[in-house]
Amino acid sequence: MEIVVDSHTHTIASGHAYSTIIENALASKNKGLKLLCTTDHAPEMPGAPHYWHFNNQRILPRFLHDVGILRGVEANTLNVEGQLDLPPSSYQHLDWVIASFHEPVFTPSTEEVHTRALINVIRNGQVDVLGHLGNPNYPFDIEAVLKCAKEHNVAIEVNNTSLTGKSRKGSDVRCSRIVELGKEIGVYFTTGSDAHFCEEIARLDLAKTLLSQHEIDESKILTTSTTRFLNFLLLRGKPRIEEFSHLY
């Protein structure tokens, strides 16, 4: 399985990451990626940038070191209503929106609360993918959430960092169950390194192994093809990115 898109990466703007977008793009080129999603943490995460950081991504070149740059965010789920920590004005400037639970922003609660929050995030229509769902601090009704994601064309991330045991310990078993049920339900998957340093860009070996173990068809793995990934954005109602016309 070849992965040509890293759908979840961070720069120094996130406050606890250590590389610039230029360094991340160069690492992407050296590792054979075609597209890079830059997805810094949204404002409610401690140390994260002001929302202007996201609104101003329109100034970023569409290519850095010959790698296509997708302007994104890892937004925080704020509450059970599924609200995110970006103002409405931000979304027009973003190609790719991840929504994730983070302990400093959303205090872990019950399975019922987490399930309601995720379903409301999906239904609110602003989110393209749910990030690192395997976190054992946030149990949820996997079947209900994945069925809702399937209905609304929201992708499910397989987060490589979650599988390393260094972050969100205990995610591996839950991630496996999510992928297993996701295959049955027919959701779309993405693979994100969750890189916080440029050397971690495209480090997706554990995510690839998990998807292969469950024999997920590549047509359901958005990051295996620029055409697949960009057409998913069109499916989500995003405008066509003309600079990427040769990648559709």
In short:
The chain has helices at 21-30, 52-55, 111-124, 142-151, 171-185, 205-213, 226-235; strands at 5-6, 35-38, 63-64, 67-76, 96-100, 129-130, 155-159, 189-192.
Question: How would you sum up this structure, described in words?
Answer:
Zn(2+) 2 binds at residues 16, 41, 196. Belongs to the PHP family. The protein is an alpha/beta fold. It has a single domain (5-238), classed as TIM Barrel (Alpha-Beta Barrel), CATH 3.20.20. The chain is built from seven helices and eight strands, in the order E-H-E-H-E-E-E-H-E-H-E-H-E-H-H. The chain has helices at residues 21-30, 52-55, 111-124, 142-151, 171-185, 205-213, 226-235, and strands spanning 5-6, 35-38, 63-64, 67-76, 96-100, 129-130, 155-159, 189-192. Strands 1, 2, 3, 4, 5, 6, 7 and 8 form an eight-stranded mixed sheet that branches. Helix 3 runs parallel beside helix 4 and helix 4 crosses helix 5. The longest helix is centred in the C-terminal third of the chain and has 15 residues, at 171-185. It is globular. The two termini are 19 Å apart. The model has no long low-confidence stretch (mean pLDDT 97).
Helix fraction by DSSP (H/I, runs of at least 4): 25-40%
Instruction: Report, as a whole number of angstroms, the end-to-end distance.
Output: 19 Å
Please describe the biggest sheet, giving its number of strands, its sense, and whether it closes into a barrel: 8 strands, mixed
Radius of gyration: 16 Å
**CATH homologous superfamily name?**
Metal-dependent hydrolases
How does CATH name the architecture?
A: Alpha-Beta Barrel
Can you identify the CATH class? Alpha Beta
What is the count of structural domains? 1
Estimated structural class: alpha/beta
Query: What's the number of extended β-strand segments?
Result: 8
Quote the beta fraction: 5-15%
Topology pattern, helix = H, strand = E = EHEHEEEHEHEHEHH
Average predicted confidence as pLDDT: 97
Shape: globular
Low-confidence stretches: none
CATH fold call: TIM Barrel
Binding site for Zn(2+) 3: 74, 102, 132
Domain Polymerase/histidinol phosphatase N-terminal: 5-79
Organism: Vibrio breoganii
Cofactor: Zn(2+)
